[in-house]
Design brief:
Number of domains: 4
CATH class of the largest domain: Alpha Beta
Strand order of the largest sheet: 3-2-1-4-5-6-7-8
Largest sheet: 8 strands, mixed
CATH superfamily of the largest domain: NAD(P)-binding Rossmann-like Domain
Structural class: alpha/beta
CATH topology of the largest domain: Rossmann fold
Strand content: 5-15%
């Protein structure tokens, strides 16, 4: 096999779109000569110009020397024929996500390159083994999945097919490191790591919207302020394009035989069909441009916060929160008509009142999961007294923003966070990658503040398991079915990252 870290390595890139140009850029910056080809007339040369324009900006910003820019320009060469790849030791495909198109390309390349050359696909979802069907020397073929924008995103997934040799996988891992990426080895399954693991963030947000629990702006604010995500799920879908997000979600769901944990909603499809695709069309879950006024996630606070509250289910964290506001916390048995507060985990207000006999009109539930220093989420049961709710919102809103939602098992944050954690645990159970690599992939590929297994540990695997089990019980939906990986570790008091 060709040494993929050889300083004299010649790399070929097929496809001069955003991905192909990005791969060519990072390869040239890493000191390797790159041939780039596209069947569209002028596309390869246009990609080269775009790469050099980006490098010019780096020079102006003082992030690259002029000499290094010129060296990159010399190393990056457009070619006009596939036959010119004959001297390449590695050829990376970055064309349209079409199985037959990729198969045809690799069969042609197999007749052009040397027998020791490595062939790799940048496919984001198509099975590597399926692309390799009918390929001469399938043992030298693998997946090498970069993320867009390639020069910025530091993750690359390396995926072996059923015939891929171990030295090919190791060589591509070494090549990824040469490019300054963090390579993770992933199993050849639908969506690999990131496109599989990334489903929970958006689909649970869509489920919350579908149930009329909260608005997009409320969901986004909670996930930013309380959970540390750079963008809320609806902001993110608008940013990447709903026409991009929806087909991947549908593909992963179908490919996993309809696993309800991967299910999306009708509105996801509806927005695709009606052209409400996000920023690119000026309208998605929000309206654009940026100057457009978006609905506020913040509750309107009344001028008269309550000064007396009762905690109906002993909870030290909730009592500390209330005491810090200056409120007087009295006994729940007191007949005085004060708000009754509870911190719920996986349960909704209606279920809690039915289980405990608490007066649903006075009950206000508080979500203590996540960081509540900037924002706190409240909900009440159907028929709850709005005066009670508003007085509590005013009390807690003296030091933070308040989001008020409809009754829901798990509020917003618990639902989304535990679904992310559960899907990460399922990835570990299926052996899609090593647990630490799953976390690394989610942090680097999706900018998650914590990997899903790390997130499970931060909440406590036992608590994540309890929340999911309660949501499954109350909704009757196997969407919330806990992973066996999670159940075992929660039962034994182990970390979600525990391998064996």
């Amino acid at each position: 096999m060709t040494n993929l870290t050889d300083p004299e390595l010649l790399v070929g890139v097929v496809g001069a779109g955003a991905m192909g140009a990005g791969i060519a850029q990072v390869t040239a910056v890493a000191g390797r000569k790159v041939f780039i080809y596209d069947q569209r007339d002028g596309a390869a040369e246009a990609a080269r110009k775009a790469v050099l324009a980006r490098l010019d900006k780096r020079v102006v910003a003082g992030k690259m020397s002029g000499a290094d820019r010129e060296a990159c320009a010399r190393r990056l060469q457009p070619i006009e024929r596939l036959e010119d790849f004959g001297s390449c030791g590695l050829v990376i495909e970055a064309i349209v996500e079409d199985l037959e198109a990729k198969r045809g390309l690799f069969r042609a390349l197999a007749d052009i390159v040397r027998p020791e050359a490595v062939l790799a696909s940048n496919t984001s979802s198509l099975p590597i083994g399926a692309i390799a069907v009918g390929l001469a020397q399938p043992d030298r073929f693998a997946g090498l999945h970069f993320f867009n924008p390639v020069p910025v995103m530091k993750l690359v997934e390396v995926i072996a097919g059923p015939d891929t040799r171990r030295d090919v996988v190791d060589g591509l891992i070494a090549f990824g490191r040469l490019l300054g990426r963090n390579p993770v080895e992933a199993r050849d399954t639908p969506g690999f790591l990131v496109n599989y693991g990334g489903r929970a963030y958006a689909t649970e947000a869509l489920a919350i919207l579908n149930e009329n629990v909260a608005s997009p702006s409320q969901v986004d604010a909670v996930m930013r302020d309380c959970w540390g995500f750079r963008m809320g799920p609806f902001e993110l879908m608008d940013f990447t394009g709903i026409d991009v997000n929806y087909p991947v979600t549908e593909f992963v769901h179908r490919a996993n035989y309809g696993d309800p944990r991967l299910r999306t909603t009708f509105q996801h499809r509806y927005m695709t069909e009606t052209g409400q695709l996000g920023r690119k069309t000026g309208r998605g879950f929000y309206s654009y441009p940026e100057s457009a006024v978006h609905p506020t996630p913040d509750a309107t606070l009344v001028d008269a916060p309550t000064g007396r509250v009762a905690v109906v289910d002993p909870d030290g964290a909730l009592t500390d929160l209330l005491t810090a506001t200056g409120a007087q916390v009295i006994s729940a048995e007191n007949e005085e008509a004060v708000p009754l507060l509870v911190a719920l985990w996986g349960e909704d207000c209606a279920a809690f009142c039915a289980r405990t006999g608490t007066d649903h009109r006075r009950l206000v539930a508080v979500d203590l999961s996540g960081d509540i220093s900037q924002r706190v989420t409240l909900m009440t049961a159907p028929g709850g007294d709005p005066v009670m709710r508003d007085s509590v919102a005013a009390l807690l809103g003296q030091a933070r923003a308040v989001t008020v939602i409809q009754d829901s098992p798990g509020f917003i944050g618990q639902r989304i966070a535990t679904m992310i954690a559960n899907l990460g645990c399922e990835m570990a159970q299926l052996g899609l990658a090593a647990p630490a690599d799953i976390d690394l992939a989610m942090r680097l590929g999706l900018n998650y503040p914590k990997g899903p297994l790390e997130l499970a540990d931060s909440l406590g695997p036992d608590r994540v398991y309890a929340i999911l089990s309660e949501m499954q019980r109350l909704t009757g939906d196997d969407r919330y079915r806990p992973s066996a990986w999670l159940r075992r570790r929660a039962s034994l008091g182990l970390s979600a990252l525990q391998i064996a």
